[in-house]
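Weekly sync, protein design subgroup
Attendees: M.S., D.O., the rotation student, P.L. (late)

Item 1: inverse folding check
M.S. brought a backbone from last month's batch and wanted to see whether the design step gives back something sensible before we order anything. D.O. pointed out we never logged the input encoding, so this time it goes straight into the notes. Structure tokens as presented (123 positions):
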């Protein structure tokens, strides 16, 4: 089984997670054969290790972690790699892969640009 984890920063205000939860639900609808989970770096739960542990109990063979960060900043470059290294050591039977931050994708940037243009032209 292959799973997808959306990895976000987290915040004190629970309302902050709403767009990420909507994204998770959109992906679940488009990927019904794969678990799609949301995990946080800090301030919210579940955290990444908890999410991977739960997926490991379900005989998961591969986990793709997608940082839903606008850029490859400090959290993605400094905090995430040691966490993933530790998870790989804990679960050697699971292939854990990490994508670039979503904001690094040309397609994502083009979608954001279209949104900005549409909203600047609105009456």
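Designed sequence read out in the meeting:
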């Amino acid at each position: 089984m292959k799973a997808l984890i959306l990895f976000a920063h987290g915040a004190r205000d629970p309302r902050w997670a709403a767009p990420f939860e909507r994204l998770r639900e959109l992906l679940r609808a488009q990927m019904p054969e794969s678990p799609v989970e949301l995990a946080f770096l800090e301030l919210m739960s579940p955290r990444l290790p908890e999410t991977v542990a739960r997926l490991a109990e379900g005989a998961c063979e591969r986990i793709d972690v997608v940082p839903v960060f606008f850029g490859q900043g400090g959290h993605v470059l400094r905090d995430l790699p040691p966490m993933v290294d530790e998870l790989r050591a804990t679960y050697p039977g699971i292939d854990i892969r990490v994508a670039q931050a979503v904001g690094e994708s040309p397609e994502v940037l083009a979608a954001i640009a279209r949104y900005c243009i549409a909203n600047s032209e609105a009456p």
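Discussion: The mean pLDDT is 92. Residues 74-90 form the longest helix (17 residues).
Action: P.L. to compare against the previous round before Friday.
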